[in-house]
């Protein structure tokens, strides 16, 4: 048995480098996650190809399987890909900074112009909102309502020429000491020439320090085309990704980033004016990969396998200084990782060998209950145990005195076993030295 065990441990220890089949296997999962998250097909394909190249040959971490290792690399690459670039607004050579919002109808331009106004105001700035969606009277009114909620002035000239309105708004800002001008523009359901032309003329007339493309995270596959068209025409400086409070997996973020190369500067996470965040690429990566499944496993392994504690326990065990406190620690560490059977099955090379072994987690719970009913002193010195203590522990844990006895006996046997192991080991070592 111990030979088998040591072989299994050897395999655990020497997982070595990722090979092509490890990577291929994990990539199937990743590609699926990306497509499910609405990442554009071509973007997903390019990304997977690039990551595969980097992953092959990478060292596999102690606590992970090769598949998990690939996903860890994918997560890092996704984070890096979406995180590059300046997320702050550009600053002008002389005030005011002018931020032009553009995007399709309903993407959240008006709402996010107001959200950003509030954020800036809270940072001590003096923003000015500008109503350049002149085609629907309701649009101007919407901005006025939001502006008053935010406590930020709104510049409007009714249904005038948006180019002229923007120019005059900037002049107004200079006269009144507004250091930010936030221009809300019209959107269409689809990209259309007239709209693009209008945006281009506003850009020439002002010109803006930032052009933010507002993209609804639910847009899905279409996000690529939208981003491409707007970027080609306007050379955007950044993206605002909205409606992340919904159930969109956020693949649009990756697509938009990939086709424009521009950073996502802000994320909208709700309808309220305060629901605006600076973009967090790591959170987005987790979201795209599917928080619930792949990633948590990796995080669990890293969090729970406290390497130092494990080493200390091993040392204590070798020196036969292990007590019941250590046993309790170990039970807790194991329980953090979920049902024992699952954990063992996830270990490479272990699944097959253990597939018929039934492990009863309830037994472990019972052991833990007994241990918890002992005082730390009793756990440290099991030899303190006497009938009255045993009765107290049994009552406290809802077990019988026999159960307490059995646990103590098993533990004592384990200690003896360890002692023998240690002696044998020593003898063998001496034998090796010719003694
Ligand atoms: P516009 O046509 O681009 O100006 O879009 P609006 O700013 O008018 O927003 C369209 C709708 O989306 C409105 O009902 C907003 O309340 C809603 N909305 C905007 N941003 C968010 C967000 O981050 N989360 C949620 N849940 N709703 C949003
Ligand atoms: Mg609007």
Automatic annotation (TrEMBL):
Alphabetized PROSITE patterns for the sequence: SRP54
Oligomeric form and interacting partners: Part of the signal recognition particle protein translocation system, which is composed of SRP and FtsY.
Domain remarks: Composed of three domains: the N-terminal N domain, which is responsible for interactions with the ribosome, the central G domain, which binds GTP, and the C-terminal M domain, which binds the RNA and the signal sequence of the RNC.
Superkingdom: Bacteria
Signal peptide range: none
Residues the entry annotates as binding GTP: 103-110, 184-188, 242-245
Domain SRP54-type proteins GTP-binding: 263-276
Record key words, sorted: Coiled coil, Cytoplasm, GTP-binding, Hydrolase, Nucleotide-binding, Ribonucleoprotein, RNA-binding, Signal recognition particle
Coiled coil: 298-334
Catalysed reaction equations from the record: GTP + H2O = GDP + phosphate + H(+)
Record InterPro entries: AAA+_ATPase (IPR003593), P-loop_NTPase (IPR027417), Signal_recog_part_SRP54_M_sf (IPR036891), Signal_recog_particl_SRP54_hlx (IPR013822), Signal_recog_particle_SRP54_M (IPR004125), SRP (IPR004780), SRP54 (IPR022941), SRP54_GTPase_dom (IPR000897)
Primary localisation category: cytoplasm
Protein name according to UniProt: Signal recognition particle protein
EC number: 3.6.5.4
GO cellular component, one term: signal recognition particle
PANTHER family membership: SIGNAL RECOGNITION PARTICLE 54K PROTEIN SRP54 (PTHR11564), SIGNAL RECOGNITION PARTICLE SUBUNIT SRP54 (PTHR11564:SF5)
Entry's localization field: Cytoplasm
Family statement: Belongs to the GTP-binding SRP family. SRP54 subfamily.
């Amino acid at each position: 048995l111990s030979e088998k065990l040591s072989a299994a441990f050897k395999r655990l220890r020497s997982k070595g480098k990722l090979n092509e089949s490890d990577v291929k296997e994990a990539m199937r999962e990743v590609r699926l996650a990306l497509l499910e998250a609405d990442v554009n097909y071509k973007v997903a394909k390019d990304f997977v190809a690039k990551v595969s190249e980097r992953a092959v040959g990478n060292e596999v971490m102690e606590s992970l399987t090769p598949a998990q290792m690939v996903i860890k690399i994918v997560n890092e690459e996704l984070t890096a890909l979406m995180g590059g670039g300046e997320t702050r607004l550009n600053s002008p050579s002389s005030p005011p900074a002018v931020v032009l919002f553009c995007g399709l109808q309903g993407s959240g331009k008006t709402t996010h112009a107001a959200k950003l106004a509030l954020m800036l105001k809270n940072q001590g700035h003096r923003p000015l909102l500008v109503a350049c969606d002149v085609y629907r009277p309701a649009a101007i009114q919407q901005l006025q309502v939001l502006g008053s909620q935010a406590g930020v002035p709104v510049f409007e000239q009714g249904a005038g020429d948006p180019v002229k309105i923007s120019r005059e708004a900037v002049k107004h800002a200079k006269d009144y000491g507004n250091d930010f001008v936030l221009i809300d523009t019209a959107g269409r359901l689809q990209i259309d020439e007239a709209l693009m032309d209008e945006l281009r003329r506003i850009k020439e007339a002002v010109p803006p320090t930032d052009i933010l493309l507002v993209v609804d995270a639910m847009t899905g596959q279409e996000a690529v085309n939208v981003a491409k068209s707007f970027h080609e025409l306007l050379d955007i400086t950044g993206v605002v990704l909205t409606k992340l409070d919904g159930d969109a997996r956020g693949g649009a973020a990756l697509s938009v980033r990939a086709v424009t190369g521009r950073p996502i500067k802000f994320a909208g996470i709700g309808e309220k004016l305060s629901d605006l965040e600076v973009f967090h690429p790591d959170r987005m990566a987790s979201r795209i990969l599917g928080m619930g499944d792949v990633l948590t496993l990796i995080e669990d392994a890293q969090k729970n396998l406290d390497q130092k504690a494990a080493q200390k326990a091993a040392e204590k065990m070798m020196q036969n200084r292990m007590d019941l406190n250590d046993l309790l620690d170990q039970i807790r560490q194991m329980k953090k990782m979920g049902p024992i059977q699952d954990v063992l099955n996830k270990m490479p090379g272990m699944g097959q060998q253990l597939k018929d072994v039934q492990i009863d987690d309830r037994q472990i719970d019972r052991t833990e209950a007994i241990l918890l009913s002992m005082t730390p002193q009793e756990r440290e010195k099991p030899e303190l145990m006497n009938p009255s203590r045993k009765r107290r522990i049994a009552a406290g844990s809802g077990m019988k005195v026999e159960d307490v006895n059995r646990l103590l006996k098993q533990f004592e046997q384990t200690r003896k076993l360890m002692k023998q192991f240690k002696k044998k080991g020593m003898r063998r070592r001496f034998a090796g030295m010719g003694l």
